[in-house]
Design goal:
Chain lengths: 501, 327
């Protein structure tokens, strides 16, 4: 498909019109603010704000909703970095090194780095969108149950392998997560599992409640109960906010090469930012010469997943706009809103209403630049959060956690679940069990099971599933590699050291 | 000064009492006397939510309801949570419903039945399509049924998001009537209609059953073929699409949406909504909502709705048994 440059330029002018520019700014700001709150991720942000698009023309509505979406993607990682509390699944990886940087007194730099990485990710993905939307959409269709199953298995194994030298603990964490996903109706058979006749549980436990419980509530409990010691508190000195040359050179290539990874994962319906950022983080850790610094505040550990999840957010628009298929919770909400406004995303959109499509793509581009400026300006303000005394900050986090939880299901039952996971999170911290495998397992466990069950109808046995297609083989091989290669490298490097000695 | 205030307020109170006593004589004009709440038993963004918000918008814009209206989301349990909530409210709360208000009970997933509520109207319907990839060698609906009759396991059929929904049941019903052994059918259950579409476009399943609004775009652009629909009228966008009726099978199946109130609404209250909704469905604004969402007008007033629900209940009871979902 050639790029229709006329429509492209026309779209650029429309997106730059005063009214639309204002919508980009308002949407970006609203999204950033909502995205920062624990549990209020992009999907909720967009859903809550849909009514303000009633009565707008469909192009402006699409621009506004898009801006809210990636605003929330930018915002989501702010709270990960500052208070170790991700706003959404795709911001989890930002806690791995972002929060350690904050503890080292580099909060400002971590925020700048994540903002720049988001820009690079978004930028690469938009270029990909302009030139490759159609062929990539048909590439995504090749993912059947077997391919999805192995992609998801690989993601899990990559994250478990992050818990270096402590694979057993990582594995336990993952199994616990998978067990949680067995709650709810089993789609393939319609059987109710562990729902105890509570209708609210029939749809399973929302992974966002688990995230808020383990991170926000667990973190607050841990700090209140166990840190009395002033030294352990985050340094008040938040450092300079501009990054050093070393941080930039270390992060540059990870940013650039993880953007296409995130973009490709984002295009797959149902995959999205959480999976993209986890895969990017773990591959960077494997590639890095300083892999032992990961988890302790390595700048590339912030840059890689941040670039990747933003690229994934852009990628998720490809199936939506080219096929009318929402690839994520957020794009599903956006699709609903667009249909109400009388715009039908799908194969006909680029033919019937190219102006809408290209205006939107250009608004993504402009929006990214606006958001970078906005977020860099906000840094000085945000790091003030760290100066808030704990007896003020912790109650605020708890209140936000409960509000965020309520908006997910409008149910009090979620509060109990939230508290339970807060306590689980507390114990996991005390026992030093990594939480990421659990969370990721909760996010993707259900999908993994259902895809396996469907694949087992289509193929006879595991071997037939693996050899279903080159894509399945690739992910099966990567899975094995992610488990055994780190161990192998470890052994090799030890041999080298021994030889020297 | 103080005593004067007291005196005034006593007078005011007396006046209010007298006035409200007079008001009792004409109760119907009082309803609704406060904010009206429309319960969407789903999260924001879904079909039920869309219906509730569209309703609120149109009633408000056309000035059909004087009082304020707001939409409340009560998601969970396929409508169960929202309807439990509605059951405890007064006549100023209404809820969107669909055939799930019948099916949940029959499937043993809910103690609530449609008879626990006051039926007010059926508003709109979607029709359901059976689609195949464009390179499929299945020619039409009857050809597909013929193959399934020979070997029910020969085709993988995609449906979402759950067994027992209308997409699933309508397929089972037409297959059963044709003489297919439906207990042997190979269904693959996807999370959403979007996932069903992806699976079909990618050729990971042979057939999909999904609403026309989900499949039509792809059909028109040639990525898949709709081989049958449950409609009782031609599809305006492409009149060459054949319904089951066109293929000689006497079968229609609406996927309807309606609205109901809490138990024990008075006749005046029911009459109020009959009048309001019958006016609303005539409005241009409502027509626009139908068009945008790919819905068809399917309006029935409260009387007709009641009879319709009884009839639907009987049909679903039958259908669940055939599908092997109930004993």
């Amino acid at each position: 498909m050639g790029v229709d440059w006329n429509s492209f330029l026309e779209g650029f002018t429309t997106a730059m019109s005063f009214q639309n520019l204002i919508f980009i700014i308002i949407g970006g700001l609203l999204g950033t603010v909502v995205g920062m709150l624990p549990g209020l991720g992009p999907a909720t942000a967009v859903a809550v704000l849909i009514p303000i698009t009633f009565g707008m023309d469909s192009t402006s509505a699409l621009i506004l909703l898009g801006a809210i979406y990636y605003g929330a993607m930018y915002g989501g990682s702010r709270s990960s970095i500052l208070i170790n509390t991700p706003g959404d699944g795709s911001a989890i990886a930002a806690t791995f090194d972002g929060y350690p940087m904050t503890r080292k007194g580099q909060a400002g730099q971590a925020l700048t780095l994540s903002t720049l990485a988001s820009l690079v990710g978004g930028f690469v993905a938009i270029i990909g969108f302009v030139f490759l939307a159609k062929p990539l959409a048909s590439f995504a269709l090749q993912f059947g149950p077997a391919e999805y199953f192995f992609l998801l298995v690989f993601t899990l194994s990559a994250v478990v392998s992050l818990s270096k030298g402590n694979m057993i603990k990582g594995f336990v964490s993952m199994v616990l997560g998978l067990l949680i996903t067995t709650i709810g109706v089993d789609s393939q058979s319609g059987v109710y599992r562990y729902t105890f006749d509570i209708p609210h549980l029939s749809e399973g436990i929302d992974f966002l409640v688990v995230i808020i419980g383990i991170y926000a509530v667990g973190e607050v409990l841990y700090n209140i109960l166990l840190i009395n010691n002033e030294d352990q508190r985050i340094k008040d000195d938040v450092g300079r906010s501009w990054i050093t040359k070393e941080q930039w050179t270390r992060s540059f290539w990870p940013m650039v090469r993880q953007a296409p990874v995130g973009f490709l994962v984002g295009i797959l319906p149902g995959a999205g930012g959480s999976i993209a950022s986890m895969i990017s983080y773990s591959t960077e850790q494997q590639l890095s010469k300083k892999s032992d610094e990961f988890g302790k505040g390595a700048p590339e550990g912030v840059a890689a997943p941040e670039s990747s999840n933003n690229a994934a957010a852009v990628g998720a628009f490809i199936p939506l706009l080219t096929m009318g298929i929402p690839g994520s919770g957020t794009t599903a909400v956006i699709l609903g809103a667009l249909i109400m406004l009388g715009l039908q995303p799908g194969p006909m959109l680029f033919q019937d209403q190219p102006d809408v499509a290209w205006t939107f793509i250009n608004s993504l581009f402009i929006g990214n630049i606006v958001l970078v400026i906005m977020n860099i300006l906000l840094i000085g303000f945000l790091i003030k959060i760290l100066k808030t005394p704990p007896h003020v900050l912790y109650p605020i986090i708890l209140v936000l956690a409960f509000i965020g939880t309520y908006t997910l299901g409008y149910s009090i039952i979620d509060f109990f679940i939230l508290v339970i996971f807060g306590i689980i999170g507390l114990f996991m911290k005390i026992l030093n069990i990594p939480t990421a495998p659990l969370i990721l397992a909760v996010i993707i466990g259900h999908q993994m099971e259902q895809n396996y069950r469907m694949a087992s109808v289509s193929y006879d046995g595991l071997w037939a599933m693996i050899t279903a297609s080159p894509i399945a083989i690739l992910f099966a091989v990567l899975t094995v590699a992610s488990i055994f290669l780190p161990a192998l490298f470890n052994r090799l490097s030890r041999v080298k050291v021994d030889n020297k000695g | 000064m103080k005593s004067r205030m007291k005196f005034l307020s006593v007078i005011m109170l007396a006046l209010v009492l007298v006035l409200s006593a007079c008001g009792n004589g004409s109760a119907e004009s009082d309803y609704p006397s406060k904010n009206v709440e429309i319960v969407a038993p789903a999260t924001p963004g879904g079909g039920w939510d869309a219906t509730a918000r569209a309703l609120q918008n149109v009633l408000d814009e056309e000035g059909l309801v004087e009082q304020n209206m707001n939409v409340v989301n009560k998601p969970g349990g396929g409508g169960e949570v929202g309807w439990q909530y509605l059951k405890g409210k007064d006549s100023h709360s209404l809820s969107i419903n669909s055939s799930l208000v019948i099916a949940n009970n029959l499937l043993g997933q809910s103690d609530l039945t449609y008879e626990d509520f006051t039926p007010l109207a059926v508003l709109a319907t979607e029709w359901i399509s059976v689609a195949v990839p464009s390179d499929s060698d299945i020619e039409d609906g009857v050809d597909m049924l013929e193959r399934l009759k020979e070997d029910p396991k020969s085709l993988k059929i995609a449906v979402g998001p759950a067994l027992g929904n209308n997409d699933h049941l309508s397929f089972v019903r037409v297959a059963d009537e044709y003489g297919v052994d439906v207990s042997q059918l190979e269904f693959m259950i996807y999370e959403s209609g979007g996932d069903v579409l992806t699976a079909l476009l990618g050729g990971h399943v042979d057939v999909a059953t999904l609403s026309i609004s989900e499949s039509l775009e792809q059909h028109l652009s040639g990525n898949l073929d709709i081989i049958a629909t449950t409609a009782d009228e031609p599809i305006p966008e492409d009149e060459s699409i054949e319904s089951w009726q066109d293929q000689g099978i006497d079968f229609t199946f609406p996927h309807w949406r309606g609205i109901m109130g809490p138990p024990d609404m008075t006749e005046e209250e029911i009459a109020y909504w009959d009048e309001t909704f019958s006016e609303m469905v005539e409005s241009e604004e409502w027509q626009k909502v139908l068009d945008n969402n790919g819905w068809q007008d399917y309006y029935m007033n409260s009387e007709e709705t009641k009879a319709f629900l009884d009839e639907q209940n009987e049909m679903y009871e039958d259908l669940m048994k055939t599908a092997g979902l109930t004993e």
